[in-house]
Amino acid sequence: MPECWQGEHSIETPYGVLHVTIHGAPKGKRPIILTYHDVGLNREGTPLLFNPSPEPRAMLYKSCFDNLFQNEDMQEVIKNFVVCHIDAPGQEEGAPVFPVGYQYPSLDQLADMIPCVMQFFNFRSIIGIGVGAGAYILSRYTLNYPNSVEGLVLINMDPNAKGWIDWAAHKLTGLTSSMTDMVVTHLFSQDEIYNNTELVQRYRHAIANSTNLANIQLYWNSFNSRRDLNIERETETLKCPVMLVVGDQGPHEDATVECNTKLDPTQTSFLKMADSGGLPQVTQPGKLTEAFKYFVQGMGYMPSACMTRLSRSRTTSLSSATSMDGTRSRSRTLSQGSEAGHVPTSTSQTMEVSC
């Protein structure tokens, strides 16, 4: 991949044009980090002016990944990998509104657009980071193209199609709530919305004032029309290492826990982030970065990466596991406590770690 390819690109696919942004220079045969954002967000935000408080000219992002990739601790990761951010069609800042009647791609079709990106840049393999709808899309891509995926970080992952009750509730909500309210309810927990935190205010304002709100609704409709991934631990499941991430106060905890039961326990890490709501990558980027470093170390990359946050908790689960020193034959649950310490290099139990 030539270094001149850094920056923004528009890539033609059978299902429309993808907006892609590349950061970093090629690092030999290493995989690239490929991100896919959730509904109502985009890969990186353009600041909007917002003033929810007496502080003047507060800056607002509609971004899914800015806080994570601009975090100081993440810079060590960025130096070791090329990063590729994908915007779902029409979701990037300033995207023109699709014409009335435009058939937006399904989530399965969005997954089938990714090979065009891989071919355009001659990428061999990826480590995917997806949130919500983006997590589903990367999972579908992995099921279809398993040899091109070395690992997945799935935040707020729901592998299931909507049931009839959920579908009916969604239709009823659509009659009584605005598009902005529905997306905000998807992104944040009821407690976060009830407390009207500054973060909720910022994202609500950004979504409501998006010039491409109609495009967001199309992505939202595709997400709510998704089909079941049909993954099961004993039959068909994701074959690569997976780190599941969810906030313990977020709206997608139950779905992520259920997803964990469908994945190979020897390949899966489960990180429940304490005191975190619907957007853990936004509110706790340092903690997620540290967990990500351990994750890529488990795949044999960045062996000398500096670790400063994750520490061992006194509590352990009853699951059996091997070590956290980089071997793939392990099953572990990561959560957060308050005790300082270190992460052990070998253990016979699944360790809960704090950040």
What is the SS-derived class?
alpha/beta
Measured by DSSP, the beta-strand proportion falls in 15-25%
Q: For the largest beta sheet, what order do the strands appear in spatially?
A: 1-2-6-3-7-8-9-10-12
Mean pLDDT reading: 80
Mind describing the biggest β-sheet?
Answer: 9 strands, mixed
Tally of discrete structural domains: 2
CATH superfamily membership of the largest domain, which one? Alpha/Beta hydrolase fold, catalytic domain
What gross morphology would you assign?
A: globular
Protein name: Protein NDRG2
Keywords: Cytoplasm, Developmental protein, Differentiation, Neurogenesis, Wnt signaling pathway
Biased composition (Polar residues): 332-355
InterPro entries: AB_hydrolase_fold (IPR029058), NDRG (IPR004142)
Description:
- The structure is a single chain.
- This protein is an alpha/beta fold and 355 residues long.
- It folds into 2 domains: 3-308, 3-Layer(aba) Sandwich (Rossmann fold), CATH 3.40.50.1820; 310-355, no CATH class.
- The protein is built from 13 helices and 13 strands.
- The chain has a 9-stranded mixed beta sheet with strand order 1-2-6-3-7-8-9-10-12, with helices on both faces. It has a two-stranded antiparallel sheet with strand order 4-5. A two-stranded antiparallel sheet has the order 11-13.
- Helix 7 (179-187) runs antiparallel to helix 9.
- The radius of gyration is 20 Å and the shape is globular.
- 44% of the residues are buried.
